[in-house]
Design goal:
Helix content: 25-40%
Shape: flat
Largest sheet: 9 strands, mixed
Order of helices and strands: HEEEEEHEHEHHEEH
Number of domains: 2
CATH superfamily of the largest domain: Ribonuclease Inhibitor
Pfam families: LRR_9
InterPro entries: Cilia_flagella_integrity, Leu-rich_rpt, LRR_dom_sf
Oligomer: single chain
Strand content: 5-15%
CATH architecture of the largest domain: Alpha-Beta Horseshoe
Structural class: alpha/beta
Organism: Acanthisitta chloris (rifleman)
Distance between the termini: 84 Å
Number of helices: 6
Number of strands: 9
Subcellular location: Cell projection, Cilium
Family: Belongs to the DNAAF1 family.
Strand order of the largest sheet: 1-2-3-4-5-6-7-8-9
CATH class of the largest domain: Alpha Beta
Length: 251
């Protein structure tokens, strides 16, 4: 059990402070705990590692008002709940659990990173709540059971979404021209799945959306011409510097 004595023993083993409220980090992963409890005295925590246990419920975090990062991946959690006290939470990892619906996150006004990969999300309704979480900029939905292309409408409503991972979901196969479509519709996206979205990628995708493959090809050629010119200008500048240096030597 996660008793006060057990927590204190862990602090001693990890060379943390024996006075609970002085600790800003607590490592409780791989301990086999099945209930989250007895953290009332750990009021100074900013980072809490709870992954790889047997927790079935998020609870008893009322005292962790300073928490910035919460790691709950690889547990048995079925519901997102009881996070209201964590008003400073910026990063939440609840991947590899048994969650069927994204909910109860709109209370976290500064939440920027949500990792909820390897869960049981399936429908548009299951992720609809994300529209009420405008602060999220990094979202990992990979390896769920999302199938409906209409999830894009939810993602479009997230004004600060910069990083998105949908790998391992069937929906990728159902969205025509998947990568270009998402780049066009998610205006602030800078990273999609396993690759960055470069300015060239966005310009070509937007050209494709307006004028099809021919417009995309023309835009790509423009970028390649500019890139070649930039490289040539660099070579020319270097050659000019070298020539000046040689002329100085001869003088």
């Amino acid at each position: 059990r996660m008793t006060k004595k057990t927590l204190l023993d862990i602090c001693k083993q990890q060379d943390l402070y024996w006075t609970p409220y002085l600790n800003d980090t607590l490592y409780l992963h791989y301990k086999g705990f099945d209930r989250l409890e007895n953290l009332e005295e750990y009021t100074g925590l900013k980072c809490l590692w709870l992954q790889c246990n047997c927790f079935t419920k998020i609870e008893n975090l009322e005292a962790q008002t300073e928490l910035r990062c919460l790691y709950l991946q690889l547990n048995l959690i079925t519901k997102i709940e009881n996070l209201e006290p964590l008003q400073k939470l910026g990063s939440l990892n609840i991947s590899n659990n048994c969650i069927k619906t994204i909910e109860n996150l709109s209370c976290l006004k500064v939440l920027q990173t949500l990792q909820i990969a390897h869960n049981k999300l399936q429908t548009v309704e299951d992720i609809q709540h994300l529209q009420e979480c405008p602060s999220i900029s990094v979202l990992d939905l990979s390896h769920n059971n999302l199938r409906d292309p209409n999830i894009i409408t939810v993602l479009e409503a997230m004004p600060n979404l910069h990083v998105l991972n949908l790998m391992g979901n069937e929906v990728i196969k159902k969205i025509a021209n998947y990568r270009k479509t998402l780049i066009v519709r998610l205006k602030k996206l800078t990273y999609l799945d396993d690759r960055p979205v470069f300015p060239k990628d966005r310009a070509c995708a937007e050209a494709w959306a307006v004028g099809g493959l021919e417009a995309e090809k023309a835009e790509r050629e423009k970028w390649e011409t500019r890139e070649r010119k930039k490289i040539q200008d660099s070579f020319d500048a270097l050659a000019a510097i070298r020539q000046k240096a040689e002329e100085k030597k001869r003088q």
